[in-house]
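Budget justification note: compute hours in this period were largely spent on complex prediction jobs such as the one shown. Inputs:
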Amino acid sequence: MSLDTVLARLDTDLPEAQNRLLDFLRIPSISTDPAYKEDCVRAAQWLVEDLGSMGIEASLRKTPGHPMVVGHVPGDGPHILFYGHYDVQPVDPLDLWNRDPFDPAVEEGPSGPLIRGRGAADDKGQLMTFVEACRAWTAERGTLPCRITFLFEGEEESGSPSLVPFLKENAEELSADLALICDTGLFESKTPAIITMLRGLLGEEVVIKGPDKDLHSGMYGGPAINPIRVLTRVLAGLHDDNGHVTVPGFYDGVPDLSEDLRLQWEGLNFDAMGFLGGVGLSHPAGEVGRTALEMIWSQPTCEINGIAGGYAGAGFKTVLPSEARAKVSFRLVGDQDPHAIREAFRSYVRASLPPDCTAEFHPHGASQASEMATTHPAFEATRKALSEEWGREAAFAGCGGSIPIAGHFKSLLGMDSMLIGFGKDDDQIHSPNEKYDVESFHKGMRSWARILDVLT
Amino acid sequence: MSLDTVLARLDTDLPEAQNRLLDFLRIPSISTDPAYKEDCVRAAQWLVEDLGSMGIEASLRKTPGHPMVVGHVPGDGPHILFYGHYDVQPVDPLDLWNRDPFDPAVEEGPSGPLIRGRGAADDKGQLMTFVEACRAWTAERGTLPCRITFLFEGEEESGSPSLVPFLKENAEELSADLALICDTGLFESKTPAIITMLRGLLGEEVVIKGPDKDLHSGMYGGPAINPIRVLTRVLAGLHDDNGHVTVPGFYDGVPDLSEDLRLQWEGLNFDAMGFLGGVGLSHPAGEVGRTALEMIWSQPTCEINGIAGGYAGAGFKTVLPSEARAKVSFRLVGDQDPHAIREAFRSYVRASLPPDCTAEFHPHGASQASEMATTHPAFEATRKALSEEWGREAAFAGCGGSIPIAGHFKSLLGMDSMLIGFGKDDDQIHSPNEKYDVESFHKGMRSWARILDVLT
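Corresponding output:
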């Protein structure tokens, strides 16, 4: 059976596949920081060349931001689009890494070998699982089993500003029968999962301004308004004592969890205490009366992701600063409207300001939540293929993260998506010491080989 | 009359005095930042050499932190100690300066020439007014009019950790009949003032810790506690809606303003709207029901001087950070006990913490408020000398800033202090573009020459 030869080649070629990934990880393609603009281009170019090395015609496509990479393999059977992103998160605080985040290596971890470096799991390692499956398939069979389009983005970690215009402009070229997206994880690091619910994401930066210059808190402290103090009051008011978000209209469009889904999720026997315990916590901190899985998969949030104001260096400075800023994000579910919530948030902030203070806002992305069409026959076939590879029944799971691409594929290209990934809970994506288990990388490739086999 | 020759020499030598000050300002003696340790030593050495150049025996005296400079001039008549500090504040945000803060120059300002650079007003320019007065006096008369001890500190901007031990160890050497302290300003930039009330200062840094690593807000947002959110709630709770500080026992020891003082302050016709308008504000923001002058001179405050947590760089990062921190300071009046308030603040923070969060505290200085003994005959004599130089009746004023040295001189050395300075409200001390008017510098020297004359 020819699938076996593809799988065998993936086993044999694993060391070379690892080296290719390490090479890719050495490029510091941090999309949110303009200082790394050229590195993002280099990462895109790396992908073009890698696809080219296996005979796939791919090119770097300009956008107002970082480039897209698009590749095409003609063929019969269904047309599949594969999506991943080559950009990565910033790396600070750098001193918490055990190595230079862009000098990756295979390390021996407590549960087997792992690949350490920024992007190892999110998303370079993940997207390469599909690329490696295609490489092995091509090497064994001379071609891929169906028509495949590759789409790699370079702005996923910075709100994807160029994505929607690009999809619109290239709708015909990119519309396929089904999209495969590899940017998610296993359920509890053990069970393969197809994500069927994704939270949306809305990002806002708010800058509170008061005095027109930094002041001395001895000379002005008392009569002069302190923007940090105003900011803390504004932010503290975003939740009530039960963890409920207070922004007016915030819960409009949040659906009740269906009994069916609640039962299915209960059946997963999620280890909430283990999940929290893994990061040094012991109490679910969200809304009172919800299970942890509900909170992550089906409830919206409001989080402060960054705050800065005044003097935060070594020592002390009795400054009364002229401004203070925070980055706030909202995870959205159901039919919550990110644009309405952005306006409601801004109105809330403005209404909370005392005299002499103004607020300035900077938008950072807005995407609605999305739910997958699990009735599509590919879902059940893929579930079986995944179960076979991992020796465990694959789950239809929710996901707390926001992968707006699935919603855009549906609304702009009329295309359903399957989100499958092999990350583990302890991969520390977005954190220092990000890693990807060699097991995830290896079984990930094998999973895609199996999925390509059942889908065609 | 020989005072006239001293004053005339100060007029003639002004250009050289300015050059000496510029030279002194070029040394980046930022005491709070360990990176500038050697520069602090250089600034101390500069003073030793400058005093030496006019025949005053001075030396650099070691402390566990930055060195003290002590100089002695023997003589008859009263023994006067002069105090100033050679360290300066940090300079960030650097991009708001019109020049390199340590490449000072004389610029033409809207109301005459000014000396621009970090430390120009606080306190290098001010301390040099006294040194220049002594230089002219020595040049004209061959000696100073009385016994004078010079004491220059290098840690005033970073909580003076070495000061109290140094005063205790050298109490005999440093005890004089009266201390002169030059680190304050004119009243409303026009009227010479002797400061008779100083607020105390208590500094605390608090670090709220939650998860044991930075998390991804998609994966953990909801059930995982966010330390920034906890910090904003803790800080927002420090004041009630009337601007009253809520820390239990905070107001213990705050005296009522005497009717006498209230009337005297009313007589100063303080232009509160002009004071606020100069920094882009129009509403007194402190406690409801207090005048701006009361708020600055006689009321305590609680201010957040710095806050940091999560990702605050360019772009957006959906991080749920493992910790968040703030620097908080309290200005104290009357008999408020800084140590009791530190404990009460810490208890308040600890009591506000949700499960899974801890707080770590770092103390940054603690000094009580102090009130001067205006009955000392030197006060009235000095007031006359100042009034003569400036052509306006000098005021007995309060001061919002905290100059703990006056309290230490009283409690440790039994010595009364007169605080006299020539800074103006728009000097932007602790801010970008700090400056000192040449008028302040020049009339400051002349003021000290007159004061030395009347005190001896």
